[in-house]
Specification:
Rossmann fold; four-stranded antiparallel sheet
Amino acid sequence: MTDTRARTAGEETPSPMPGDEAPLLEVKNLVMNYEIKTGMVSAVEDVSFAVPKGRSLGLVGESGCGKTSIALTLMQLLPNNARILGGEVVLDGQNLLELGEEEMRKRRWDDIAMVFQGAMNSWNPVYTVGDQIREAIYLHWEPRPSYDEAMAKISELYELVGLNPGMIERYPHEYSGGMKQRAVIAMALSCSPKLIIADEPTTALDVIVQEQILEELRKVQHEFGMSVIYISHDIAVIAEITDLIGVMYAGKVVELGSTREIFANPRHPYTWLILSSTPSITGPRRQLAPLEGEPPNLLDPPPACRFHPRCPFATDICHEREPPLEEIKPGHWAACWHHEEVPTELVTESR
């Protein structure tokens, strides 16, 4: 790569956007650490991206790369030891990081909702599922609806996500895993949010139910015209349901672009290696290549490019200077000094 410019400290990175689409959500230079006894864990470091209205973005990467930490920061549901050190989270023109707790509580569920990781096991076992969805409706609808109005809405949502409304007054233990997950999606939709964050929405479900849940999510997104952020470590799942992909490594977004472009032309070595380790039912048969090494300790991340200890293309500049997330072609961003050297062919085990 001939351009070795680096963004200077404190300079704002524009939130990457596909084309000229209007953003619903813009995340700008977000920094969030966890304070623990032995130091500060650099969980989210200078992250920028944008989600257009009515579109879906997938955040993908290994466990511990910061995907869920970003989601919790967007929702302002962080643990007490979390520290937001910089950046903006602009939803529909308003910076959520400037809101007080009461103001943010009103925005949750009304404007931004979340399907939590492992949410199918989070239902309170002593209340019916309908009681718990009605509680969200009573807290956020203005004016507060009557019981019959709330029930009519829940019945409508159950039908939308493929559940029998006769299950509304059943207890969580009477639901299967897939039914619980559908009910969680219904609850997230109960206040018609503009943005839904789905954190590993198909965890612990078999592949048949996974496909059904993903299809329900696609259906409700198109029906309501909402934006969705999907979080997963499985790039194959992300490829199936998203318009855009953001690849994360060690708290940073290292590549961002349309789903089609990322799969056809990965420009970051980490993305290239992830795709090389992912099986495909199309194209020529090949040996899968494991992604060697381990993610870094975010208490003491590597200097400059955080991926350089595992990167087959690393040179001196990768050890010395951090690559900025730059637009390498229209609608495609990558943070790599050597993005031009990444091959178009996927690596195999015999490399």
